[in-house]
Design a protein that fits this description.
Nucleotidyltransferase, domain 5; six-stranded mixed sheet; alpha/beta
Length: 303
């Protein structure tokens, strides 16, 4: 007999819905029923204005209405769905009022996670079968923040693909000056993580989750459509990511949209996200990373 559980992860760039068949006896996912992602860019302009843009709110509400209908069609009570929001909701002064509207219009009740809670949930949800948590560090590059976490702890820093795209990349393609300014700030943000890195066990593997990482893996593999089985476990070296960063730098946004595995809605912010992954590997001394299609939405569903 099926026992559905569901979670929604509303980030700065994407809104993700996960529905699983849950095995209560073994406290694990028996089967993934639905795993959907849509770019809503709720964090549009929040880095500068500290308020949610009206268009972003409309896009997000439209997506959440559809998700609520999907959940109801499967007989899942909306108040039993674990719904969380992250960086853009922490930054926006009108976030609480917006989520009151979301509840009124959709019946979905959201919790705004702290950066630390987001990091922990992403770490727990990211693991692929057979991975050793004690030998794994997770990087979750979001639209507004990036979390790095291991069993020994971690940090959330305010750098993300949307935040840094809006802050630095105002031309198409980007200029050298803007590129170097962005890289300089990424490296400065990573300074706070060097002490965390020194406490990790020798041989710790970096596991990358979220849209930047899975898109880079799709492009690296030449996938024409999203393929979870191919992406999960894909390994990218620091050199692989650097080469992709360099290509994204000279391409226009329109040209990026035709790269294999790159969704049109992600093309604009992919360079900033790829830079964060590349510099994290270089600055923190990870020669390669493994990719996981899992993440925060998996980590919160077991609550």
């Amino acid at each position: 007999m099926s026992n559905y559980r569901a979670s929604i992860d509303l980030g700065t760039n994407t809104c993700l819905l996960l529905i699983v068949d849950w095995d209560e006896a073994e406290s694990r996912i028996r089967e993934i029923v639905l795993d959907r992602s849509r770019v809503v860019r709720l964090g549009q302009g929040v880095d500068k204005s500290r308020v949610l843009h009206p268009d972003a709110k409309d896009r997000t509400l439209a997506c959440l209405r559809e998700y609520a209908q999907e959940l109801q069609s499967k007989g899942i009570p909306l108040l039993q769905v674990t719904c969380v929001a992250t960086s853009q909701a922490r930054d926006a002064k009108d976030g609480a009022a917006f989520f009151d509207t979301v509840f009124d219009q959709t019946g979905l009740k959201f919790e705004v996670l702290t950066g630390q809670d987001e990091a922990i949930a992403s770490f727990l949800g990211a693991m692929l079968p057979g991975m050793d948590r004690k030998k794994t560090a997770v990087i979750d590059i979001g639209g507004g923040s990036t979390e790095l976490m291991s069993e020994k702890g971690g940090l959330s820093v305010d750098m993300g693909s949307v935040r840094f795209t809006e802050r630095y990349f105002h031309s198409d393609p980007v200029t050298d000056e803007a590129f170097w300014k962005c890289q300089k700030e990424v490296d400065q943000e990573l300074e706070a993580l060097k002490s965390w890195r020194r406490f990790l066990d020798e041989g710790t593997e970096l596991l990358a989750v979220a849209g930047t990482a899975t898109t880079l893996a799709s492009w690296f593999l030449g996938l024409k459509a999203f393929n979870r089985e191919a992406i999960d476990g894909c390994i990218l070296t620091a050199g692989d990511v650097h080469r992709m960063v360099e290509e994204l730098k000279w391409r226009t946004i329109a040209e990026r949209q035709y790269l294999p595995g790159v969704e049109h809605d992600r093309a604009e912010v992919l360079l900033a996200g790829a830079m964060i992954l590349w510099r994290s590997m270089e600055v923190l001394g990870f020669s390669q990373c493994r990719i996981s299609t899992r993440g925060l939405r998996y980590g919160i569903i077991s609550r």
